[in-house]
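Form 7-S
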Amino acid sequence: MRCKILNVVLCMACIALFSARVSAQDVGIFEGQTDVGTVKHEGSGAYDTKLQQYTLIGSGQNIWATHDDFHFVWKKMKGDFILRTNAAFIGKGVEAHRKVGLMVRTTLDSNSKHINAVVHGDGLTSLQYRKTVSGITEEKKASITAADVIQLERKGNTYTMSVARKGDLFVSEEVSGLDLGDDVYVGIFICSHNADVTEKAVFNNTRIVTPAPATLIPYKQYLGSAIELLDLESQNAMVVYQSPKSLQAPNWTLDGKSLIYNSEGSLYKFDLESHMPTVLNTGIAKNNNNDHVLSFDGKMLAISSGDGGPSIGYTVSSAGGEATRVTQTGHGASYMHGWSPDKKYIVFCGERNKEFDVYRIPAAGGPEERLTNTPGLDDGPEYSPDGKYIYFNSVRSGLMQVWRMKADGSEQTQLTNDDYNNWFPHISPDGKWIVYITFLKNEVSPGDHPFYKHVYLRVMSVNGGPSKVVAYLYGGQGTINTPSWAPDSKHLAFVSNSDLLFPVFPIAK
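Output:
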């Protein structure tokens, strides 16, 4: 009898698998969907291409004990990966323990080995897992409840759940030694916890990231890139462009219609309506890097180019044209970061005598002026829109932190003071906010900002104070090296990374 039931279940799973594959275009970055186990009410998963949002409807008595009944939208994966989403129920619901979250399963059988990062209707947030087929489900509860942001990462047989209430930093729980096999089903799920009812939930910012392998050679080998636009109010990000190449450091143009980014030594202008990039002519400035910045009036670019030698600062029309050298050769590398609002000066990070400091130089060229002189790296200088201050990041206090000084270099004041490495402060056009990128100190040394790490984008007042996380992502070098605010001060452009490119989003050929 047990074999007969198992055969029926397997047959039903195969039918569901076939039907899910037929409708794969309806489930975005995933391959298929199915009801796992026995459900009274058929579930569904729909993908809104305009909003890049998933809506799941499902029933099922539970995901617990020795078997599971729920609706699952999935993709087959091998190797290491990072799953991330923002999940929220729609409506009050019936059961306190209705569930949404991320899951990894060995099979689509109801009694499969699995692990899931789950948020319940009453807010309970936990990491739940079944070590053996038909085994009893175990649980590790998170130190927070009612998480909005859910992440589940696999490294070999170790699974880490990282969760947060929107705006807060992650807290984590981990399970090691869980062998689900290399080839697994990964995805998003919903369970009503009551066989007689259905529940509904929405999933935003849903990403599958395949991270850099340990064998990747930094600055010689690269993962693919996605340019994303973030709405700061909703904290929802939309992927607008992808490439298997390294795309870096988008600047938002003053008219709000385009982004300027760099890739493989060239600068590109990306039209936000057509989603098409075109090469921006920079004349003699070759091998341009990710230190490029628009003037406040949007008419000029300060760019950094190292054609076989240390990076040199240039200026060029934002429409393209012949570049004009600003910094001199023989002085060490120069990385251009900010214009003064009156366009008279450019501030940059300069390497002089093996020391990196903030310098100011006339935009037309001339003598440079050193504004910082403490040991260690000072980087990322940028003027406030009123020209009164220069914001920068400095390692002088131990970890990398955000600082501010007056435009003449006086009154250097630390604005962030936490247990993270904070880089590249960018001031909103309305002069009210700073966005900066945060690296984890257990992943990155204070004086480094490499590719392919777990990072946050955080926002705080220009005067310092509490910071709020506005994006959770896999990125780092090139994510927001340069000012990336939209003219309305309500949106940001940034770059995330993965070697997995999604066919539902625009992909460069």
